[in-house]
Structure formats: structure tokens, C-alpha cells
């Protein structure tokens, strides 16, 4: 092969690699324009489900009354979580039964994360995006 053909093939290969790299960058950068923006409070409230107050005992015999606000990613997920209320109560009773008074006072964030994880495991029509404790009484 002549030197001109080798140079042309090398140039074309480099040009092809640069074009593919540029395409990848453009596709990744021009993704969803709303990504990273916080949702409006109206949208959050629209897809939120407030649990009824649940009263149960802790491992050490203390009683607790607790209520959560569960945020979902859409209308279907909100409807589904309201139908799965019995599973939510079951998850909460089991989680709270392993906690003592001290762990309950300091571990609410862990409890919220565990409830979110376990609810997402049973959800089929969307997902739980966050769980907030909105009321708690320890007796």
C-alpha cells in the first residue's frame, strides 16, 4: 500500500473515533432537561400518601404511636400504596418490634429508610421516593 492510502485510512479511523466520541457526549449531555431540578411542592403533595396512625409496642414493652407521609413517583404508585396499607402496617409492626426505646428515639431515619426499601420491594406500579415521619408519640 502506498503511503497516501495508509495516511488516508489512519485519518478516516481517527475521524470515525472522534465522531463516535462526540455523539456519545452529545447524547449524554442533552438528556432530560428537568434532571436535577427539585420537584414542586404541589407535585410532591399530589403523589403523597399519609398513613393512618399506627400504635404498636417496642421490644422493651414501650408503646409508640406513629404516622408517616409516603412520597411516591406518580398517581399509580399512590393508588397502589393506599391499597397496600396492610403490608405497610405489617412492615412497621415488624420493624418497630425489634427496636427499644433508645433506638426508636435515635433511629427514625433508619426506620424511614427501611420502610422505603421494603415497600419498594413489593411495589409494582411505581416506587416510593421518600418516607417522612409526621407524627410520633412514645409512651
What's the helix count? 6
Shape: elongated
The secondary-structure element order is HHEEEHHHHE
The overall pLDDT average reads: 87
Structural class: alpha+beta
Fraction of residues in helix: 40-55%
Tell me what portion of residues adopts beta-strand conformation: 15-25%
How would you describe the oligomerization state of the chains in this entry?
single chain
According to DSSP, the number of beta strands is 4
Terminal-residue CA separation: 89 Å
Main beta sheet: strand number and arrangement? 4 strands, antiparallel
Round the Cα radius of gyration to an integer and report it: 26 Å
Uncertain stretches of 5 or more adjacent residues: none
Question: What does it look like?
Answer:
The chain is an alpha+beta fold. It is 55% helix and 20% strand. It has helices at 3-29, 41-46, 75-83, 85-97, 101-106, 108-122; strands spanning 48-50, 54-57, 63-72, 128-138. Helix 4 (85-97) runs antiparallel to helix 6. It starts with a helix and ends with a strand. The mean pLDDT is 87.
SSE blueprint:
Elements: H1 3-29, H2 41-46, E1 48-50, E2 54-57, E3 63-72, H3 75-83, H4 85-97, H5 101-106, H6 108-122, E4 128-138
Antiparallel strand pairs: 1-3, 2-3, 3-4
Helix pairs in contact: 4-6
Short précis:
With 139 residues, this protein is of the alpha+beta class.
Amino acid at each position: 500500500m502506498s503511503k497516501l492510502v495508509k495516511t488516508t485510512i489512519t485519518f478516516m479511523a481517527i475521524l470515525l473515533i472522534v465522531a463516535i466520541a462526540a455523539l456519545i457526549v452529545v447524547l449524554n449531555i442533552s438528556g432530560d432537561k428537568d434532571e436535577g431540578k427539585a420537584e414542586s411542592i404541589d407535585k410532591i403533595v399530589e403523589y403523597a400518601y399519609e398513613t393512618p396512625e399506627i400504635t404498636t409496642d417496642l421490644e422493651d414493652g414501650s408503646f409508640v404511636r406513629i404516622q408517616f407521609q409516603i412520597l411516591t413517583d406518580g398517581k399509580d404508585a399512590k393508588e397502589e400504596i393506599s391499597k397496600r396499607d396492610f403490608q405497610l402496617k405489617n412492615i412497621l409492626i415488624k420493624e418497630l418490634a425489634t427496636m427499644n426505646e433508645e433506638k426508636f428515639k435515635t433511629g427514625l431515619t433508619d426506620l424511614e429508610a427501611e420502610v422505603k426499601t421494603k415497600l419498594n420491594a413489593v411495589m409494582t406500579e411505581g416506587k416510593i421516593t421518600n418516607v417522612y415521619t409526621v407524627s410520633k408519640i412514645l409512651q
